[in-house]
Every structure is written in C-alpha cells, then in structure tokens.
Write the structure tokens for this entry.
Amino acid sequence: MSETMRQAPRRRPLGVTIISVLVIAGGLISLGFSIVGIVALSAALSMAASLPGNMMSEVISPWLFFLLGLAIVLALADLVLGLGLWMLKSWAYWITIVLHCISLALQVFDWSVFHTSIISLATGVAISVVVVVYLLADREVREAFRV
C-alpha cells in the first residue's frame, strides 16, 4: 500500500467526545421515556376501556401513540447521530450544525409563543451557539471531521 493511499488516524477532540456522549445520553433517555410512555398509555387505555362513554381510545390514543412513536424515531436518530459524531463522520458534523441552528429558531419561537422562561431561552440559545461555533471555528475539529 502506498503512502499516499494511507490516511493518518484521526484523534477525536475532547469537545466532540463530550457532545457525542451528551447526544447519545439524550437519545437513551428519550428512548426510555418514550417506551415508558407507550407502556403507560397502553395500561391507561386498557383500564379506561371499561368506562362508559370512553372517547380516549377512539380519538386521543391514536395521536398519542403516533407522537410516542415519533419520539422513539427521534431518539434512535439521536443515537445514530451521537455514534456518527463519536466516529468522526462528516455527515454527523453537518447534521449537528443544522439541527443546532434549527434549535436556535425553535428556542426563540417557544419563548415568543409559549412564553417559556428567559432562563430556558438563554440556556438553549447558549448551548446551540457554543456547539455551532465550536464545530465551525475550531480547526482541530474541522480537521478531525475532514471538512
């Protein structure tokens, strides 16, 4: 094998390791809560089925199951993204940047429409800004992802 074909092993920067671990942990937590939600909803529906005039099983439950299923899909996506960051995949680098930019917009939207606390807004914005600036500005990170 020639020297030009061999690539030097990449070293994962500490910040990328931290972001990756947090994304994976968030995915595992979300997955756990989603599964618990489906089990709890199933139990509630089985108990409510015996009640007269039960509209929950006909109207509400399909939407709740859909939302919990969507939460499971998003949790699995978090796990894949976290592993992609851990393995220094360039697609994970770009998806992380895009998702944190979207998160910035959603933080402002939540604050303006749902009147979330200013502390929640500041925390969410700060985290997203720090992650995006770190990924884009740090040369070691860009070199590790080969972007």
